Q: What sequence folds into this?
């Protein structure tokens, strides 16, 4: 009876527990599974399609990201080229303005030099006229005095000759 009680307990335990699987199957059959169980296969197939979808979405996202990076790189390159062109144009404008300013300054210096030369020339002409006038006045004064002196000398000689004549006649 004791063995019979153990057997009924064991059969009840097998029905309610997975312990029966361990007792019924040999160890080597549990270690190597030849084919998946039907419920595992459907779950595995569903999981595989989810992974495939996720992998496809990931690849699409990576492609979109690469395209966006490529587009951003092209835009960055274009912006850099535009900035370089703008800098070049501004440098040319500044160089042009500097050239214009230098030309303006040179023309102002030229005009100033011409004005100064004109003033020097006018001053020299005025000085020459003054020298001529003064020389003419000196000449007239000297000539006038020389004539006056000559007339005076003539008068003195005449007076002296008249005195001599009077003295000889007397």
A:
């Amino acid at each position: 009876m004791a063995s019979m009680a153990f057997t009924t307990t064991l059969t009840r335990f097998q029905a309610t527990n997975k312990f029966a699987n361990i007792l019924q199957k040999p160890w080597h059959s549990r270690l190597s599974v030849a084919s998946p169980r039907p419920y595992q296969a459907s779950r595995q197939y569903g999981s595989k399609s989810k992974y495939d979808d996720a992998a496809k979405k990931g690849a699409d996202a990576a492609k979109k990201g690469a395209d966006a990076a490529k587009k951003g790189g092209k835009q960055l390159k274009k912006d850099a080229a535009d900035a370089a062109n703008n800098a070049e144009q501004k440098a040319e404008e500044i160089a042009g303005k500097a050239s214009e300013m230098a030309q303006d300054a040179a023309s102002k210096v030229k005009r100033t030099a011409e004005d100064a030369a004109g003033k020097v020339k006018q001053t020299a002409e005025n000085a020459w006229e003054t020298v001529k006038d003064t020389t003419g006045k000196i000449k007239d004064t000297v000539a006038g005095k020389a004539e006056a002196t000559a007339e005076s000398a003539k008068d003195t000689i005449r007076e002296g000759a008249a005195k001599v004549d009077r003295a000889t006649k007397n």
Q: What stands out?
A: Confidence is low (pLDDT under 50) at residues 30-34, 38-46. The chain is about 95% helix and 0% strand.
